[in-house]
């Protein structure tokens, strides 16, 4: 996709460079005569005629082809429920098998039991599932009835007015009128809004869970209307695309009677299920109705996934079927041989009506089928029901775990897929997003660079750091909140806020409107943990502390901007002009909605009135001079003059633009101190200047002309990045005041409001990776394009400096570009998200030509996206770089510990992100995804051949690194041991970007790539698209045949989540689309630790052992009947009453395994969290695998032999009847099976004991009642009084005590041997669990010290406190034999130790990248060899330090501490 877009401009031929086509209509297919005369194609397009008097006949013809708005999500009706549900249930082959047995048993020649009795087990199972399905479907029916009966106002043609009707009466083409807080009944094209600007606000929480409002606009040409929309005046025909499930994509056009067309898109479509907000009345025409709406097309319901254990069960059931056929074959052959021993037909061999006897072969075949009926219990039909009940119990325990509940968001874990809980305990690979998943997704403006000058915002960093400390100490924070503010704060007249050390978020530079008392009070006490009224508006995001150096320049820039209309319109490269444009771009280039704190969801559309700007300029300048003496110009960040008190006319005074000499100086050199101390400019300057100056300052600050009226503004953005930039601009008093579709108003620091005409908005998309707005400057009249986007894109769109014409200007532009790139690399290494800001001035004539083509592209139905992309590309070029921003997205709490624990558990963790490589790498080190001693390979190339050679070279090195060649060897001065010794082995990490992934997938290099990743402990994929994320997950899942888990929080993670075996969504700041497509939903990434290591292990261990127990139980019981056939002539008869056999599986042995599967804990939660290595038992399927299955089968055969032949030998030669012989066998087998279950239980509670004892007693109670009351229940046999007589026989008690002991003795011996001599991690952990708490903690510490080696480098703070376990598959690397340049660590604490080298494989860059990348410019190979081009000498930091806020890299560079030694290999 990227490759094709790079050359899409070739399809649009331009006559001259930087000029637009002479006639856009000639190159636009829409206006060609063929298109004009083309008739509508109903198979490819949807044509909608309005339902009014003029078009009623056309509407009547067309609308009958479209479905109505009534929905039906139920699966059944009253007539179809029984047959359809049975049909669905018999899709499960086990049910078909038992149905086959029921049919066989109805044949007289093969009848073993009573026909009705044979049907009972199958009927019970089918009935239970039928009730469950019927209950769920009835709930859907009630919901459908409620939705279809909802009312809405529909235009009635005959009545000429809107009438209230039900939703189900809505048809395509109807006009619908909606009011505020009403739900949209269908997909409606917006034609009218009571908002004067033609905007309707929607809340899409029902669709994607996002609570921030979305704007929808009236179709162009309909915004300027009267008070009400008149449907009778609408005579246009609507042509749009066929129904589809793309929520964010919609295209079409409206053809008017004069043959002109107006295009529209998704910005004008109201989707079914959304809620109208902040709009009194909205009206539109229905485009899609009912099941054709986008919401219904996306409602695919829960996805069914088969767990790994379920797939294993199906395989083992085939083994059971094979065993069943083998036993039946023996029975058939034995029956034929036994019949052959009779010279004459025995009396029980009854002939047919003609007196003919069955042949021996046919009799054997009938007996084969009879034996299938007899041994049917060998296939555990009740196992499926038991598994469903166990999983319901496990989900209940998950929901009620308080450790998986997030108090801040008031969210607990959601289990959306009930049938794969056990897969949580077998995960081998985790694929994670970064932003919002590993980080908080609370974007905080951190620092910026403008025209090559970097402003580090050190005070803002201090605020973030202290905020983090306060967040970690709730008690101190509460005490701080209760502190009283200074008097001037309470009065609301002063703008300078006290800078006491206890007020980190309320500094004087916290540039906000002073009237904020109500919002401050809301944050006191328990309100602090509540959700803000609008998204992305927490105090940590809003309260940006300005940089005082930049603030002084913003003052001059604002005054320069005010007088910009007095200068000729020419490109200005001065710092002052660039600063003004930079903050205007931050303020304007977005889609932020403005509201107030008194009415947080009511949009501000009317800007404050502004008088002529004349005499106030001198007044403002005088005030600035007074403030300049005190060096307190930052007060303008929180104070703006009133618009009504400004002067009358623009004075001749004009501030001088900043000279370019300052561009070469580092802005951070003076004020951003490296000593870490907090420096308050207020008190420092106050102490120096004395009281007289302060008095004059008070006079200026308390001037009524500088007061602000009205409530505080709130910004509701669609993304946290937009909100962060708008809050940052507001900190410098470039305040976004109002926004309409046509205009946007900005208040400058001195209070002047500028209203820009908003000509076009080119929204952000994942292909362009940028956003642009086209505005007309209110003072100069210039048409300006402001663009913000990813640096990898914006840097390629900048104007060539050689075209400047002036050598000095050319040098300056190159210097600005190089410095900005250097700062971007610095931000990325600091873990910040980067955005570039640029602008472009467009001539009026060129703009009109471009706008004409843009409007025609918007009206196009075919190739609309391609045409819009081309128009955007032709406008967004030859840009002028203004600067860049660095936004901090801090790690979530507990992420480093969680990742470290998951790696210790043997789980491979891959991070798939769209961020810059440097940013992602820095986050990877901070969250312990990569360790300071890891060998990191970084591959960046677009060429397939180069990619193949790099992969081959890296693979060769890694194999040599991980193949033990000598018993002992040295690496960096340290003696290394072979793999079996358990010593430290150097781990390998891989960093790869999206372009390299394209080369891998297109060049068929997947196998080589996967082979390389097999040696890596972590893989980091940067700049990856959502499609690439899902392709990677599918590649690893299918090729390696392993269990995968994907976790993300945004809509771009949906495909990745759905591709994995288990998808987990995080309910974060990016809506609920990831949650709605996931199997499990959690609130924080740290919850993944307990979810997998504890609940995942328990769910797998419980269910796996329960399944094995079920197979054992059924085989053991069926074999009793099989052994009896050897003594009854293989006649298919039984020694146990059939009702007793039914009760045996339904009541006597069903409840204990269910309780066992829900509540059993083989290891405590504390031990599982302390020893993550225990999770590997689930990865290796130790509880349920093929050897374990056959071992249980062998044990079942042995126990059945003992349980049958001991009673047989005891009663041999006696004259007891068949049921008297079978009752002791039944009792012994029940006792043995229950005791076997007791031996498997690792946790004993009162409930476990009651269930086991209750099942045993229930057997005797039911048997006594049944044998006492059933005289002729099973004619001709008679079980009457059998149990009563047995209980009076001492022999019965003797064999019931001795036989289970003999039967269970081998298993008991094996379990004792495993507990004493076994080396299983689980058995060792179970021993530790039985110790007292003190001894248990000591044993756990000893375990951890033995399992994980001490880090080799003492200077790596990120590894401090956590010792990583080394996977056994990785051997220690051999001695490096290549000539690699290494740089020793400069840390004094590690002077005697050397770090292991990082190997950086860098593919050849394009010439364009070489020309613009200042980090690699000049001597590129020299840079690469020193390891600075990609990863650079990255600083390292403890996770806690990162969480408290990023430090200035220059500080670390000056101290030279914690640098990673590196070497590189350049190909």
List keywords for this structure.
single chain, 1467 residues, alpha+beta, 9-stranded mixed beta sheet, 52 helices, 37 strands, disordered N terminus
Please outline what is shown here.
The protein has 1467 residues and is an alpha+beta fold.
Number of helices: 52
Number of strands: 37
Radius of gyration: 39 Å
Strand content: 5-15%
Low-confidence stretches: 1-38, 471-532, 567-571, 610-709, 964-984, 1350-1467
Strand neighbour order, sheet with most strands: 14-35-34-33-15-27-32-31-28
Largest sheet: 9 strands, mixed
**Outline type:** elongated
Query: What percentage of residues falls in helices of 4 or more residues?
Result: 40-55%
CA-CA gap between termini: 27 Å
Mean pLDDT: 75
Helix vs. strand class:
alpha+beta
Describe the structure.
The chain is α+β, with helices and mostly antiparallel strands. The chain has 52 helices and 37 strands. The strands form eight sheets. The chain has a nine-stranded mixed sheet with strand order 14-35-34-33-15-27-32-31-28, sandwiched between helices. A nine-stranded antiparallel sheet has the order 17-16-26-25-24-23-22-21-20, with helices on both faces. A six-stranded antiparallel sheet has the order 3-2-4-13-5-11, with no helix packed on it. Helix 19 packs across helix 24, helix 37 runs parallel beside helix 42 and helix 43 packs parallel to helix 46. The radius of gyration is 39 Å and the shape is elongated.
